[in-house]
Amino acid sequence: MQEAKFYKKLDNLTVVCELCRHFCTIADQQTGICQVRKNINGELFSLVYGYPAALNVDPIEKKPLFHFQPGSLSYSLGTLGCNFKCANCQNWDISQAKNTTSLNLPLSRGTSLVEPEKIVSEALINDCSSISYTYNEPTIFAEYALEIMKLARAKNLKNVWVTNGYMSDSCLEAILPYLDAVNVDLKSFDENFYLKNCRAKLRPVLENLKTLKKSGVHLEITTLIIPGLSDDYEMLKSLAEFIVNELGDDVPWHLAKFSPAVSWKLKKAPPTSEEKIFEACDIGKNASLKYVYAGNIPGDERENTYCPACHELAISRFGYEIERFDNHGRCAYCDKNLDIFE
Ligand code: SF4
After folding, report:
1. I need a labelling partner for 260 at 20 to 30 A (CA). Which of 16, 147, 240, 312 fits?
2. 199: alpha, beta or left, given left = phi > 0 and alpha = psi -120 to 50?
3. Rounded-to-integer distance, Cα 23 and Cα 15, Å
4. Ligand 1 atom index nearest CA of 31
5. CATH match of 49-182 with 3.20.20.70
6. pTM for the full model?
7. With a 6 A CB cut-off, is 17 part of the ligand 1 pocket?
8. How many angstroms separate the alpha carbon of residue 7 from the centre of ligand 1?
9. How far apart are CA 222 and CA 317, in angstroms?
10. CATH classification code of 186-303
11. Which residues have C-beta within 8 Å of that of residue 253, sequence separation ≥ 6?
């Protein structure tokens, strides 16, 4: 087990974890909300350092990132645990791995320790141009991610986080020098949704989004449209306006369909209709966002990138397959910059 980096010691063998915005106070022999950071005799340990629960070579489009190295492969890893408790979670078998003692610590799912060097060498062997920290919330395995990120940078690999955006300032400060791209899950613009559905708060996510954008990291945003929970017209309008006004009209916005069958606790909820996704796309377009994408509707034109100036097709997509008609990130017809990081 690896001692954690982001915490401070209090009296009586108690510690405060300073890795995410929950700032859990953790008594001796207890874990924080994410269940993978444990106080052992007054010192905080990461239970997942070096123990990925999932390792895959993914298309970058799967993150989803549509304007970052389009068509490239990203070596992707995640561990157990999460600092959110989203009822709709689709990776709940790893993110909500419960009761750490029943999993035979360390939380490795039977794998042996995977050193950061091994992750980087596997990424290179598999022709990946980036490493993605994804599947569960990377914040909760930040010490492991950071070691990999430093090595990846030295080998000219990019670093990508797919995150709920709930990291603390100190976590953000530590990762920003090595972070190239991020997809933040902005789940709703309603504080109550965050409180009830995720057991977290909206405001810190909005603050971190602004910091990420200001820092120059490539930013894309995903919103899962859950019928009756995160599909309200006015809420989505406010969310789209926040992106335009506070982050910029060049930030791509992905609207994703909800699937109850694979969700953690919403198995009886209805799936998202295509009409709802299309309505949300219109909200984004009407708010003047340049790049709005329908997710999980293969073959629909709303998965393509069109030039925001002359509206010609720049990148067509079918699932994770893409075909490019742009000229190195510029429109082949009118030369407009398409905000693509190559
Ligand atoms: S990472 Fe967040 S949820 Fe986990 S122990 Fe630290 S403050 Fe709590």
Report:
1. 240
2. left
3. 10
4. 5
5. yes
6. 0.96
7. yes
8. 10
9. 17
10. 3.20.20.70
11. 220, 221, 222, 223, 240, 243, 284, 289, 291, 292, 293
